[in-house]
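SAMPLE LOG
Freezer: B-3
Tube label: C17
Construct: single chain, 149 aa
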Amino acid sequence: MHKRVMDTDALAEGLMIAVEQMVRYVRHSAVAGGLSTAASSAIGRLGREGPCRLSELARAEGVSQPNMTQLVTRMERAGLVRRVADDNDGRAVLVEATDSGLDVFRRRRAERAQALDLLIGELTEPEQQAVRIALPALARAIQDRQTHD
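STRUCTURE (predicted):
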């Protein structure tokens, strides 16, 4: 039993290293808009989830509100996001991606997808099949976990 725990630990460690390398490779492949990782992540979230309050964006991105305020201000100056009134609460302000911001988001996503596609293309057919099965399964598990938390 002890050996099995060690095998599982080694498997998890190897998987974590592979995921980190893949994320780093794919992330560095996206250069459109010259965005920082934090800006890219925030614009991506706004593109996927729509407008949200600055405090919600900071919490979702795991950064402090002052840091998110600075980031949003920089992105606003670059024309990537704008602040708009919240129709549900006249006192609140939402941050939303502009058309330009969404265009940068789409171009960066396409660059990342192409980088991942090139990587997958270097794999054998059985390895490609394993990736097509494993990655969506892991994504589903993550989504299920987030839904239940």
